[in-house]
Amino acid sequence: xxxxxxxxxxxxxxxxxxxxxxxxxxxxxxxxxxxxxxxxxxxxxxxxxxxxxxxxxxxxxxxxxxxxxxxxxxxxxxxxxxxxxxxxxxxxxxxxxxxxxxxxxxxxxxxxxxxxxxxxxxxxxxxxxxxxxxxxxxxxxxxxxxxxxxxxxxxxxxxxxxxxxxxxxxxxxxxxxxxxxxxxxxxxxxxxxxxxxxxxxxxxxxxxxxxxxxxxxxxxxxxxxxxxxxxxxxxxxxxxxxxxxxxxxxxxxxxxxxxxxxxxxxxxxxxxxxxxxxxxxxxxxxxxxxxxxxxxxxxxxxxxxxxxxxxxxxxxxxxxxxxxxxxxxxxxxxxxxxxxxxxxxxxxxxxxxxxxxxxxxxxxxxxxxxxxxx
Length: 374
What we know:
By secondary structure, this protein is α/β, with parallel strands linked by helices. Helix content is 48%, strand content 10%. InterPro entries: 4Fe4S_Fe-S-bd, 4Fe4S_Fe_S_CS, Aconitase_4Fe-4S_BS, Cys_rich_dom, Helical_ferredxn.
């Protein structure tokens, strides 16, 4: 895939890391070209330099979306990470694979660490961990007045994602109540993690195992539509390959994936209490195409969302957050510059929420758009 890059530069226009740092060597075009060179001459760079290169990608996928040649730079970087494992990647793998056991107590433990022990490097990470667990959340002020009948009586699976399942039960309960109001019968099915975070970190085998399990859950349920509440989870599920019986089944899987915001788009909403906050909305990088969650809120709130990102990435970056936090900071700062003035920021991606919560200016609250619904 690296050899197919024609160095046109389209990816450079959309890369948030390049835009925030101004360093062309961090851009996707440079990574694609260097990966091509490494394929031709693996001994050209030292192990340490290749390992460093493998850590310098946010994995947002914006370059992949605009590439006319189909070059997937995040996947190329994932290949480098797989070939050059280190402790940071092992730590990331453990955190994702053992989410059920680690996330809730990890969040509680992070809250107990005094702020004077939050080092410059790990302070934001500890703040992110402490905010991971469910709390009071945002104050809801949207009430569903009526539901459409477009999906009434349909059987669906709910892919809630690790965050909603293990630490943010409020999102899960709101999603289930919305599906109940829509008349959807939610089928039983125990999904695993979508695996996208593991895939981008270079753990292709573990990610593949999770993908095969999730596809099996879908098959056993009769291949119904699968509702998602997280943009990154949906993108991860869409990226499944090589675990289907045929190309037709893979297409069937892709067509079955459905964001919750899309099926509640035509609900009638009323603002139940006066809104005193200035609202901001963050467009997740992985919400490809039309961001139905943003549109739903725009119409439900009569257009009163005052700030919204478009090209800006939150700067989370997955495993890059552990290994090159200094390079994610200007990306995050550009995102908050766009959202300046907002007192409440919502989005539809659990990773973005964690990053924005950890870096929010004083007094700014961050949450999932589901938290605005009574």
